[in-house]
Amino acid sequence: MTDLSARAGGTPSDSPEDLRASAAAALLASNRRRRRIRRWIAIGTLPLTLAALLFVGKILSMYAFAHQSITAYVADDYAGSEASARGQEFLNWFEPFKAPFNVGTALAGAEKLPDARAKLEESLDLATGLEVCTVRINLALVLERMGDAARAEGDGAGAAEFYGEALTVTTEMPEECNSDEAQEQSSDPDRDMQQSREDLEDRLKQKQQNEQPPPEEEQEQEPQPSDEKLEELEDKLEQGTQERDQQQGDDGGGSGTDKPW
Q1: Segment 185-210, tens digit of pLDDT
Q2: CB neighbour list of residue 172: distance below 8 Å, 6 or more residues apart
């Protein structure tokens, strides 16, 4: 019997082996295309993947370094606290004020006051909103301690200048620093920020006043006793003279010792 397709001038039907070979070739080509697509997708998303991994790693390292810094500070290990805080400075993108703030606080604990001041001032420049509240408190405390150090060295004028700078830092604190939200963001929630600020300002004013030199008129003018005081002194002198004369008369002119009054 003659094949109808051949009679119609068409090609004869492929054998089953040819069909399987064609299907396998088509499948391989499709797989190659998919692999190429996946490869380009992987290459295209690689920067995003790396950025995501870096983001997660930075977040985790920030919390780790912050925890280590706080733990070391509480244990009076200020060198360890400073080292951990400096670990936060690498790629300091998130809350950038915290790294210099923690470093400055650790330096203050180690009595490296000028370096602590520089770091806290750097933190203040980076802080925004309510972040400035706790930075200003610690900066003012460092300036107060610098004033105390100057006073201990006999530099009263320098001490008064430091106290004045500390007062300026506290008086320029925003009014929002007295809010509950600011208290929640404090580095030490157990410390009442508003009360600490008021106590600090009162203390600074008293210290600054104590270091102020007296006016030139008071320095040149000798203090003069009042008229009442002069009369009292004269009465005591007269009474002492009478007692001495009486004692000399009783002792036959012997020499006695005056008692202090």
Answers
A1: 777 767 788 888 889 999 999 998 88
A2: 136
Torsion of CA 37, 39, 41, 46, to 10 degrees: 180
Which of 80, 184, 174 lies closest to 102, judged by CA? Answer: 80
* pLDDT given for residue 243 in this prediction: 54
In one letter, which amino acid is 195? Q
Which of 18-27, 96-105, 156-165 is the least confident region? 18-27
Burial of 169 (0-12, 13-18, 19+ CB in 10 A): buried
Long-range contacts of 107-114 (CB under 8 A, 24+ apart): 107/78, 107/82, 108/138, 108/141, 108/142, 108/145, 109/73, 109/76, 109/78, 109/81, 110/78, 110/79, 110/82, 111/145, 113/142, 113/145, 113/146, 113/149, 114/146
CA dihedral (233, 235, 236, 241) positive or negative = positive
Q: How many CB atoms lie within 10 A of CB 155?
A: 15
| Cα separation, 62 vs 96, whole angstroms | 11
Q: Is the dihedral of CA 244, 247, 253, 257 positive or negative?
A: negative
Rounded Cα distance between 174 and 132, Å, is: 8
> Is the confidence at residue 253, as pLDDT, over 50?
no
